[in-house]
Write a structure and sequence with these properties.
Two copies of one chain form a homodimer. The first copy, chain A, is of the alpha+beta class and 146 residues long. Chain A folds into two domains: 85 residues, Arc Repressor Mutant, subunit A (Orthogonal Bundle); 49 residues, Ferric-uptake regulator, C-terminal dimerisarion domain (Dna Ligase, domain 1), CATH 3.30.1490.190. In chain A, 44% of the residues lie in helices and 21% in strands. In chain A, the strands form two sheets. Chain A has a three-stranded antiparallel beta sheet. In chain A, a hairpin with a 7-residue loop joins strand 2 and strand 3. Chain A starts with a helix and ends in a 9-residue tail after the last strand. At the A-B interface, helix 5 and strand 6 of A face helix 5 and strand 6 of B. Strand 6 of chain A pairs antiparallel with strand 6 of chain B. Chain A binds a DNA duplex (25 and 25 nucleotides) through helix 2 and helix 4.
DNA sequence: CTTGATGCAAAGTGTTTGCAACTTA
DNA sequence: TAAGTTGCAAACACTTTGCATCAAG
């Protein structure tokens, strides 16, 4: 799984005449080690633990490459900062976002995807990707707004 | 329709012991006049045309109130800035977003909504609101990526 | 008149960029 | 050794906030 991602990333770089630097390697590794969703800032933290010299700028620049190469997926759950998660080898899924505790729960639903595609055909719109987020209260946070 | 929104907003303010100032009234009116989706910056422009003294800070502060009162709905279609649209008296809808020309197309699909609610029940998650965005190419922009 | 609202400019946030020094292929 | 990459700090875009002054109820 790590190897696959490494291959994906290095082939992406090669094909674009970009270089696989030690920093990029470290950031890739850390992003693969992270579980769940993480922010650029968190990834910077992980990466600095592995190599103290890695800078914020390099993390942001590498994050863009990891996203473009298909290693990571980028999400905007609101709150101003983007979150990332591993994309390679995973099935597509959407998210519940708890507006009380921030918990993110994943789910897959093919019937919804099918209806989306149908809707796209109806509107003569070529869907490339989509984002479905269901906001509310997770089972722990109950159903009473703050 | 304008009266309804004015009532909604003034009752919201009253109930929170907030004041209906001339600036708030002007910003409300301008946001109701605007068609489609607009940004805070655009609303500031419209509002300044009506009352030159209205400031950016007041527009942002009022936008929050308009959102909370249910007069406006806030959307994040990416690109860093939030967009707003009238909410009052409109049926819920979701959006296609063209990644070439930025065009936003609205659609309604009850079957998708139903499946979302079903999924929520399945996960013991109390859905309060959701966001579904289908990104891709509109009929004008064809289907060939840039 | 009391409490909330305003405008201004400064401060925040998260992210991006210019540049000289440095690596990778 | 040519071309891309890095760290740093400054620049950015959007939004929020502190504060003295002002106005609504």
């Amino acid at each position: 799984m790590v190897q696959e991602a490494e291959k994906l990333f290095s082939e992406f770089l090669e094909q674009k005449d970009l270089k696989l630097t030690s920093q990029r390697r470290a950031i890739l590794l850390e992003s693969l080690k992270a579980r769940g969703h993480f922010s650029a800032e968190e990834l910077l933290g992980f990466s600095k633990a592995a190599d103290r010299t890695i800078s914020k700028a390099t993390v942001y620049r590498t994050l863009a490459l990891l996203k473009d190469s298909g290693v990571l997926e980028e999400h905007d759950f609101g709150g101003g900062k983007k979150l990332y998660e591993k994309a390679q080898g995973r099935k597509h899924h959407d998210h519940f976002v708890c507006i009380r505790c921030g918990k993110i729960i994943e789910f897959e639903n093919n019937r919804i995807e099918n209806l989306q595609n149908l809707e796209g055909r109806k509107q003569h719109f070529k869907i490339v990707y989509h984002s479905l987020k269901l906001f509310g209260f997770c089972s722990n946070c109950g159903s009473k707004p703050a």
